[in-house]
Structures are given as C-alpha cells and as structure tokens.
Amino acid sequence: xxxxxxxxxxxxxxxxxxxxxxxxxxxxxxxxxxxxxxxxxxxxxxxxxxxxxxxxxxxxxxxxxxxxxxxxxxxxxxxxxxxxxxxxxxxxxxxxxxxxxxxxxxxxxxxxxxxxxxxxxxxxxxxxxxxxxxxxxxxxxxxxxxxxxxxxxxxxxxxxxxxxxxxxxxxxxxxxxxxxxxxxxxxxxxxxxxxxxxxxxxxxxxxxxxxxxxxxxxx
Length: 219
What we know:
The chain has 219 residues and is mostly helical. Helices cover 64% and strands 0% of the residues.
C-alpha cells in the first residue's frame, strides 16, 4: 500500500499547521497509519491499546512527519510509535541520554556507504526479522483495489464517502454522520443505500470480477 503524499507546497502548509490539509491527508492515509502502528506494537508484543494511542498521536504529530517518499512517511509513523511507547517524544529523548537499551542501539544509523541518494538505514533496518513491516504496508499485488474500484463505480458521491468512512476507519455511525453533516440515521441510510445498490447489480458485479481473473486464480 502506497502512502498518499502531499505536494511539496502542501507539505509546507501542513508543517505550518494547515488543519484542512492535515485532516485530509490523515484520513486518506488512515488505513496505512493503522497498519504501521498495529504492526509495530504487535511485533514487540506490546498491548494493542498502545497502537490505538499511536494512531491518534500521528494526527497530533502530522506536521512533523516526513513526506519525501513512502518509506520516509512510514518511518516517521514508526517514530511516533516509539514516542508513544516511551510516554512522549521528550521522555524518549531523555531516555536516550541515559541508559542504553537494545532499541536505541537498533535505531542508530548503520555504518554503510549510500551512493544512490537513498535514506540512511538504521542497524535495525538491516536485521532480518520474521515479521517485515514493509510486507504489511506494501503487500503483494491482489485484486482488492480493482474490486474496490468496481464497487465504488456503482455508488453516488455521498455513498462513496460513507463507504470510505465505514470500511476504512474505526469511526462509529454517529461519528461518521457528524463528519458528513447528517445524524446517525442519515449515515446508516447511506450505508444501506450502497448495500442495496450492490445487491441489485450482483450478477453484473460478479461478471466484472470474473474478467479480472479473480475466480480463476482463487481456484
């Protein structure tokens, strides 16, 4: 999964606190942010409540995130996870000035020449692990995106917006309604509307999926 990154001009506005842009790009990257945070804490066998805190904390740190590339963006999300783990950015840096833990060693830049202009890797990045964060956030190509696009092609603009909120965030129906300017019943109505629509074109939908080769590969 690739991050949806702002242009340099937009990134500059984000760094200066443009709330509209922060809200927009946070929501567009919410699924990616969630995967990175959950993977970070799961890999370290840390209570999942920390990942929920990190997902929320990324919003507060959004102006400090790096937008130069997908990997830079993912790395900066992981940095926020580290801060949450240690109780805050300040606490983390105070810790690093004191006792040395394996985490701080792994975060040190690797002694390695980089002539290709890429980012400097840390020691931790160079150690193979049974769980690879990049495999989680950049999975092998599937038909999910294509199927998602087909489904959205049958929806109205408002239904598409509701669909994105219901299936790609952890927001409740009431919260979704508030964001869309309707009450909870209005949000549920939009959801029921696109479900009915997809049911009504089920055969046509299925035929389009078959053309993608989904069933042939699945079987």
